[in-house]
Amino acid sequence: MLNPLRVFWWTWTERASFLEALFSLYLAKIYLALLGFKKVRRIFVKLRGNRSSRSEINIAQKAVLRAQHLIFWKRSACLTNALALQSMLARRGYKSELHLGVAKAPTLKAHAWLAFEGRDLIGGRQKASFTPIASFDTD
């Protein structure tokens, strides 16, 4: 859970990234509901910006992980988390891969995770029980 007292100790960059992550999560959810995945990928994740520091990747990752505690939906959170982080990294000029997988347990389940240069940033812990079916690079 997000501790309000810890926010006081965050750097200004961490605070700005947190607000960007929160906005990106809500925007991703709204876009997915209204437009569908294919259009969201085309609109939401465009590569732009210049790389400045690898620490930006870790700050953006932490921001999404912190902001996910303030969303009101839990269903399909992995996809919105992955899309939000991918859009944040794209705005900073970093390419990443969004992976989608399915598992056939008693019922069909789906999962999304985001990787950067072979390292899982979001959703990687659960990916072992899912069979990858699609992968999307940053455009």
What does this structure look like?
- With 139 residues, this protein is an alpha+beta fold.
- It has one domain.
- The protein is built from 5 helices and 4 strands.
- It has a 4-stranded antiparallel beta sheet, covered by helices on one side.
- It is globular and about 45 Å long.
Oligomeric assembly = single chain
How many runs of DSSP E, i.e. beta strands?
4
Structural class, please? alpha+beta
Task: Give a short account of the largest sheet.
Answer: 4 strands, antiparallel
What would you call the shape? globular
Report the span from N to C terminus: 33 Å
* Number of separate domains: 1
Strands side by side in the biggest sheet: 3-2-1-4
What's the average pLDDT?
85
What's the helix count?
Answer: 5
- Low-pLDDT segments: none
**What proportion strand?**
15-25%
Order of helices and strands: HHHHHEEEE
Radius of gyration over C-alpha positions, nearest whole angstrom: 15 Å
Helix content: 40-55%
